[in-house]
Amino acid sequence: MNFRRGMTREEPEINFIPLIDVLLVILIFLMVTTTYSKFSELQITLPTAEANKAVEREKEIIVSVTADGKYAIDRVLVNFVNVSTLAQELQRVAGDRVDPTIIVNADAGASHQAVVNILEAARLAQYPRLTFATQTGSSR
Which of 23, 57, 69, 116 lies at 20 to 30 Å from 11 by C-alpha? Predict the structure, then answer.
């Protein structure tokens, strides 16, 4: 039964303008309240030490390695062939010193393998006392 014969029925329509207004307000709110975190690569700070300059002792042997892999024992360049020759050089430099302390002075750009070579040479030469040199002062 259609009692309204002459009237046409209007289709319901959705008005998107208020919806867009609400979404824009939410978007602005999210942009203002969002914290942006900066992701960067791993930052490493080399060790530093706050101490007086160490007095050079007789039982110390300073073994240095540069960034390009050159070795020096007590400030004298050593030709590195393998670990056993480096151990022989350590024994030669130590001479008659009993149980010397090996101070490893590695450049910041030196490879880990170069430092491990020094540690292995000290082990082969049977010098168990090792220490590492650090920068003095604060570099932070």
Answer: 23
